[in-house]
Amino acid sequence: MHSGARLRELMSKGTVVAPGAFNALVARSVRKAGFDACYISGGATANVAGYPDIGLITLSEMCRTIREIADASRLPVIADADTGYGEVECAVRTVVDYERSGAAALHVEDQVFPKRCGHLDGKEVVPPHAMADKIAAMAKARHSADFVIIARTDARAMEGIEGTIRRANLYREAGADVIFPEGLADAAEFAQFAKASPGRSLANMTEFGKTAHISAAQFGAMGYSIVIYPLSVMRMAMKAVEDGLAHLKAHGSMEAMLPRMQHRSELYGLLGYRPGEQWDFPGE
Length: 284
Prior knowledge:
three-stranded parallel sheet; 12% strand
């Protein structure tokens, strides 16, 4: 089964919760924890390479990350495609390469390049019909009709909730399977959007942004098909890294930190590895 078909099946049964995985080992943990899908953030991919989230990660770098995470997790992978890496021709190539790399879905946004994090001020968006043309071309370019095209709109800050809804409905008409309204403020706005733009939608539950904390159950009750947690795991991991390094600097030993570490045996279990035995590459 195409991974996009698996994602569509999951959406038909309820709200899909997709934690962000910034590498293949984290993706294995997502699967082990019992989640049915995972998400790859362009921002997280840039951050772990040492870059800010301003569109510096290339198509080939993202495709490598998709391949590694899709292979390791064997889950449907929803991948961030930023602005499609350029105009229509570039966006078409993005669909082809993401699908070949094993993604189940991608989302493309209507920001002007160079883009900003969706929860920062100072964003600009392209004209709505230019974005609609890009979406139509991307939908046509996919190899399988099961591959999921998600259209993200960042218009909330510039055009308000009404402008967001107008763009969403235009993007649905252009061929988007799911709409991702970025930067909505609270549950009332998410409910208003879901009612005014019927169809599958994605909610971004990121921390320290413009959106109030809303549970996956609340999003499900409003009719959202997917909820992503793009940076949660990376933020927790980096806080642990900072705490551990500070402890080592202060004490010259990590002995007291052992209870907070993943044991070697736990790592091997996560990898499905037994020393002295042939390791089998992950399969379906």
